[in-house]
Design goal:
alpha+beta; 3 domains; four-stranded mixed sheet; 33% helix; four-stranded antiparallel sheet; Ubiquitin-like (UB roll); globular
Length: 401
């Protein structure tokens, strides 16, 4: 079983604070550089111990040639900038699982900048130095999670500070506009006692895309780490993290919400499903039924965590023509799931293994991994799926499957 990482961003978060935290928790910088060097970017990694209000923390920072200080990553000067497509091309040099995480984080930043400036994200120009810094910080976050064998990340709400900040476009309230956009869906708190900006765009993207749940959990702490920030504040400007193993083996409490609909435009159902998943649904299903007066209808069934109940009900009532929702509290029994990576002639592939009562009960190639290989190789998806399944049986010694 891998590790659980619990973040306590009581003094905010930035890309270099997260990097410092991972190194403080034991991330091997030599192995980190082996991954980063695949990007073929010019950089130096500076790591040192610093004292932040009595706490010894790790300060880590990338030094980029001719680096200047930039408050945001976006610029409209075309001769100084790089497009998002160029950034994605650079990221393709990373291992696929790492690349996908970094793409998601960079996409969050790009979408935020796009909304703020009214420019399609494909046409945005990122300052070359700022983009390099962001690529390295976000890549390190994804690489570090893999190297430390972190399976789940949980977090407290993030302290964003308060007051105003001066950036290229003027003076704005904290958090800055792009950061505020990235933080959509992330629990935050304002701290009137700290008149400073505590969250950067890269820090916000890490929280948004890498944290599995913003909730307290029960786990056994094995290491405590501190990643140092740039500022000197009334409180220690550090990102604190706890690394350990989860004690909570009980299944999560879930609910099932259902409603029958016979008078809604069928074109709306696709949009409804997207919204339900965005707002925390674990599963959404539609079933054709006959209702009163022999009218054909649709039964909408949603499985979600119990804490998402109110938000899902609100979505169902506002996005459909339904006037009522049925609520069920079922018992849910889950098999333990583990992702294994195997080597194939087409590259690395992921396989999902399910265990129940310590016995393997199911083995399945991971769909997205199969799809990616099929698209790259030109082979039929069903061929790749069966091929990876057989390779998994051989490499993982799964004789019963």
């Amino acid at each position: 079983m891998g590790f659980v990482l619990f973040l306590d961003p009581f003094s905010g978060i930035s890309g270099d604070m997260f990097l410092g935290l991972l190194i403080d928790l034991g991330l091997n910088t030599h192995k980190l550089k082996q991954h980063l060097d695949k990007l073929e970017l010019e950089y130096e990694l500076e790591v040192k111990k610093v004292n932040k209000n009595g706490i010894i923390a790790t300060k880590a920072q990338f030094k980029i040639p001719k680096k200047e200080h930039h408050e945001d990553h976006l610029t409209h000067h075309k001769h100084h900038g790089v497009h998002l497509a160029e950034i994605y091309k650079t990221l393709e040099k990373l291992d696929e699982p790492i690349m996908e995480k970094v793409r998601r984080m960079f996409n969050s930043i790009a979408e935020a900048e796009s909304r703020i400036h009214g420019i399609p994200k494909e046409k945005l120009h990122f300052h070359e130095v700022g983009a390099t810094d962001a690529i390295l910080e976000l890549a390190t976050a994804a690489i570090g999670i893999q190297l430390l064998d972190i399976e789940k990340i949980y977090s407290n709400p993030v302290n964003v500070g308060s007051g105003f900040v001066t950036i290229k476009h003027g003076r704005y309230p904290v958090p800055a506009p792009a950061t505020a956009e990235i933080l959509r869906g992330v629990p935050i708190r304002f701290d009137p006692s700290i008149q400073a900006e505590l969250v950067t765009p890269t820090g916000a993207a890490i929280l948004k895309e890498l944290v599995d749940e913003f909730a307290p959990i029960s786990f056994t702490v094995e290491k405590v780490g501190y990643g140092a920030g740039e500022k000197d504040l009334e409180i220690p400007n550090v990102l604190r993290g706890f690394l350990g193993h989860s004690n909570d083996e009980k299944p999560k409490k879930i609910i099932v919400l259902e409603t029958n609909i016979d008078n809604m435009n069928p074109e709306f159902y696709g949009y409804l499903m997207d919204k339900l998943f965005e707002r925390g649904a674990l599963d959404v299903g539609y079933m054709p039924i006959f209702m009163k007066k022999n009218r054909p209808g649709v039964r909408v069934s949603v499985v979600c965590p119990i804490e998402k109940k109110d938000e899902i009900i609100k979505t169902l009532l506002s996005e459909t023509t339904s006037l009522g929702i049925r609520v069920y509290y079922p018992e849910r029994i889950e098999a333990e799931r583990e992702i294994k990576e195997i080597e194939t002639e087409y590259g690395k592939a992921k396989v999902k293994i399910a265990r129940y009562c310590s016995r393997i009960v199911n083995v399945a190639p991971e769909y997205e991994s199969c799809r990616s290989i099929a698209e790259r190789s030109g082979k039929p998806l069903k061929f790749i799926y069966n091929y990876i399944y057989q390779k998994a049986k051989e490499q993982l010694n799964l004789k019963d499957f």
